[in-house]
Design goal:
By secondary structure, the chain is an all-alpha fold. The protein has one domain. The chain is about 75% helix and about 0% strand. Helix 1 packs parallel to helix 5 and helix 2 packs antiparallel against helix 5. The longest helix has 30 residues. The relative contact order is 0.25.
Length: about 260
């Protein structure tokens, strides 16, 4: 039961954020968008360090000074995987008119959804891998700490859902269509998380690599997309404040619930 709830909580966060289209008449203000982008970045960075990289190193404690190697390798593989995915998948980022990846005849809406789906994949993996570790009680991971990751990512997904659905509404889509597209962008998270959990018994020996892999993939999203978007133009100081709040909130959640 706890596993099912934990896997679904991030999706509920995305749906909650996407529901902003029913309560806000105008497009999201630049100030609010900058703040939310910074907040999301802070949550993801803190989750990557406290909930993924540190447990990955702790699992290899018996290796002494070499305990950092699986985390290092997994981290670099996570960065490389997202880099490759970005290169091979046609997608469109918010606020951009120029698609990235190979040429395609997909609509802008579909390419926008693909961009968000790519970036939600590592979050789903992160939730799945910490729950897999918690079920086997390895690396000091507990169900409480796994739940902390799930809640933290869900909180991060609230602004992400809004950042997707609000521009869709401003572009002329109906409220329900904007809500559904925003919500569907988070559907890959519970699917990816469940897949990791189902394969946990097979992948237990490489769990430290998987934890670090998820961390690398998440930080790729932060560095490649969230922080550049948050720092462009005016009001970048608000994104810095949002980052600090998100980082501290995720850090506290991990320590208190872990």
């Amino acid at each position: 039961m706890a596993l099912t709830i934990g896997l679904l909580i991030p999706l509920l966060g995305t749906m909650l954020g996407s529901a902003f289209v029913f309560f806000m008449k105008d497009a999201m203000s630049v100030k609010l968008q900058k703040s939310l982008l910074g907040f999301a970045s802070g949550v993801m960075v803190a989750a990557s360090v406290w909930s993924l990289l540190i447990p990955a190193i702790d699992m290899e404690e018996a290796a002494g000074k070499w305990s950092v190697m699986p985390a290092s390798v997994g981290f670099l593989l996570g960065i490389g995987f997202l880099l490759l995915l970005d290169e091979l998948t046609p997608h469109l980022h918010l606020g951009s008119e120029h698609p990235e990846g190979p040429r395609s005849h997909l609509s802008k809406t579909m390419m926008l959804v693909l961009a968000v789906t790519i970036h939600n994949l590592p979050e789903g993996m992160a939730v799945g891998v910490v729950f897999a570790g918690a079920e086997d009680s390895v690396g000091g991971l507990s169900m409480a700490s796994a739940l902390a990751v799930s809640i933290g990512i869900a909180i991060q997904n609230v602004p992400e859902g809004a950042i997707i659905s609000m521009p869709m509404r401003a572009a002329g889509n109906s409220k329900w269509r904007s809500f559904l597209i925003g919500s569907l962008s988070g559907a890959v998270e519970p699917i990816g998380g469940l897949l990791i959990v189902l394969l946990a018994s097979v992948m237990l020996p490489v769990l430290p690599y998987l934890l670090a892999f998820a961390a690398g993939a998440m930080l790729y999203v932060v560095i490649e997309e969230l922080i550049p978007e948050a720092s462009e133009g005016e009001h970048s100081n608000l994104s810095t404040i949002g980052f600090a709040i998100g980082f501290v909130l995720m850090m506290v959640l991990d320590v208190v619930l872990g």
